[in-house]
Write a structure and sequence with these properties.
109 residues, single chain, rod-shaped, 98% helix, 1 helix
Length: 109
């Protein structure tokens, strides 16, 4: 009788071990699937980060180029104003010379 009880306990233990092994295999496959999904999510996140970085770099480059253009335009405007002022002074001097000559000739006559 003890051998029958011992034999049935061994059989029950083996059945429990087999069931636990099946559950273990299912959990292992679930963990593998979870890891693969997690790796895909990490790669997508990295891809998104790379895109954001390139967008930020391009945006910064556009802003830098625009600012450089603004600086160049202001410098060019200053140069034009200086040339215009020099030209106005030159015209003023020439017109004053003409007036003086005309006045001088009138006095002599």
């Amino acid at each position: 009788m003890w051998s029958w009880v011992l034999g049935s306990l061994i059989v029950v233990y083996l059945i429990l071990v087999i069931l636990q092994y099946r559950e273990y295999r299912v959990k292992v496959t679930e963990v593998k699937e979870f890891r693969s999904v997690l790796d895909k999510m990490k790669s997508l996140h990295q891809f998104k980060q790379d895109q954001m970085k390139t967008f930020k770099d391009e945006h910064d480059h556009v802003i830098d180029v625009a600012w450089d253009n603004v600086v160049q335009i202001s410098e060019y405007r200053k140069q034009l104003e200086q040339k215009d002022m020099a030209y106005q002074k030159l015209i003023h001097k020439k017109s004053n010379r003409r007036k003086k000559k005309v006045r001088g000739k009138r006095r002599k006559a």
